[in-house]
């Protein structure tokens, strides 16, 4: 029996040695870190926020562009109206000269009567 016990012991030792050899020969395989549901949810929320933020920025810049275009159109209109106003002021100055008024009055038959002239002082 001692021979049988010795054989069993040798087999066990040999199996342990083989297991030890196979462990050494096998490369260490690391398990992939799995992404949890919470991490996926956070990632999706982050992507969603980035998309919403970029959409808001683009729409705001488009609105600003439209307002700036309207402002420049109004500025052109204001400049044009200012020019018309200054031209009309110049025309009023030319038409309200004393010589022109006197010529127009004489043309209509009005005469200057010095007895009816009253001088007004400030």
From TrEMBL:
Pfam families: DivIC. Coiled coil: none annotated. InterPro entries: Cell_div_FtsL, FtsL/DivIC. The keyword Zinc does not apply. It is a single-pass type II membrane protein. Residues 9-29 are annotated as: Disordered. Belongs to the FtsL family. Keywords: Cell cycle, Cell division, Cell membrane, Membrane, Transmembrane, Transmembrane helix. The keyword Lipoprotein does not apply. It comes from Bacillus salitolerans. Essential cell division protein. This is Cell division protein FtsL. One of its GO terms (biological process) is cell division. Its main location: membrane. The chain crosses the membrane at residues 41-59. It is found in: Cell membrane. Signal peptide: none annotated.
């Amino acid at each position: 029996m001692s021979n049988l016990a010795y054989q069993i012991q040798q087999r066990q030792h040999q199996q342990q040695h083989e297991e030890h050899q196979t462990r050494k020969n096998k490369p260490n395989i690391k398990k992939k870190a799995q992404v949890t549901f919470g991490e996926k949810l956070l990632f999706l929320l982050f992507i969603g926020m980035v998309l919403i933020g970029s959409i808001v920025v683009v729409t705001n810049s488009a609105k600003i562009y439209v307002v700036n275009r309207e402002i420049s159109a109004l500025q052109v209109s204001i400049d044009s109206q200012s020019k018309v106003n200054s031209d009309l002021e110049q025309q009023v100055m030319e038409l309200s000269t004393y010589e022109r008024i006197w010529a127009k009055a004489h043309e209509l038959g009005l005469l200057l009567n010095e007895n009816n002239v009253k001088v007004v002082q400030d």
